[in-house]
Amino acid sequence: MSSITIYHNPACGTSRNTLALIRNSGAEPEVIEYLKTPPTKTRLQELLKAMGISARELLREKGTPYAELGLGDAKWSEDELLDCMLQHPILMNRPVVVTPLGARLCRPSEAVLDILPDPQRAAFSKEDGEAVVNAQGQRV
């Protein structure tokens, strides 16, 4: 059985859809509610490296203290942005999924399909009704 981890926010529809797609492949991932159990700085650095993105690319603006902290300013170093995410975990965009095939910020949620080791087992539609996977387990 493969090892899959999702950094999840149950209040986020994209995160819920991503988790449901993982489960639709037959996997039961390790679910880390990152607002309750934030990753360490070292783990954040590992995730960024695995995803091939910068800390700035992982920042979430909407519904966070991004503007109040002035994080749009280019003066912030990678290290300082990581420190901000550690102080305010809501700044970390979600969901981040790690599988044996790689790591990805899964926005949109169907981006997880590119890194799931097992195929989808059934049709799947997002919470808003948008079809993502057909009855044959293929991306629509």
Descriptive overview:
This protein has 140 residues and is α+β, with helices and mostly antiparallel strands. The chain has a single domain, classed as 3-Layer(aba) Sandwich (Glutaredoxin), CATH 3.40.30.10. The protein has five helices and six strands, in the order βαβααααββββ. The strands form two sheets. Strands 2-1-3-4 form a four-stranded mixed beta sheet. Strands 5-6 form a two-stranded antiparallel sheet. The radius of gyration is 16 Å and the shape is elongated. It starts with a strand and ends in a 7-residue tail after the last strand.
Q: What's the CATH H-level superfamily name?
A: Glutaredoxin
Please, how many domains? 1
Q: Which CATH class is shown?
A: Alpha Beta
CATH architecture: 3-Layer(aba) Sandwich
Number of E-type strands: 6
Radius of gyration: 16 Å
Uncertain ranges = none
How do the strands and helices of this protein lay out in sequence?
Layout: E1 5-8, H1 13-24, E2 30-33, H2 41-51, H3 55-58, H4 66-69, H5 78-87, E3 96-99, E4 102-105, E5 124-125, E6 131-133
Parallel strand pairs: 1-2
Antiparallel strand pairs: 1-3, 3-4, 5-6
List key phrases describing it.
single chain, elongated, 140 residues, Glutaredoxin, 4-stranded mixed sheet, alpha+beta, 5 helices, 29% helix
Concise summary:
With 140 residues, the chain is α+β, with helices and mostly antiparallel strands.
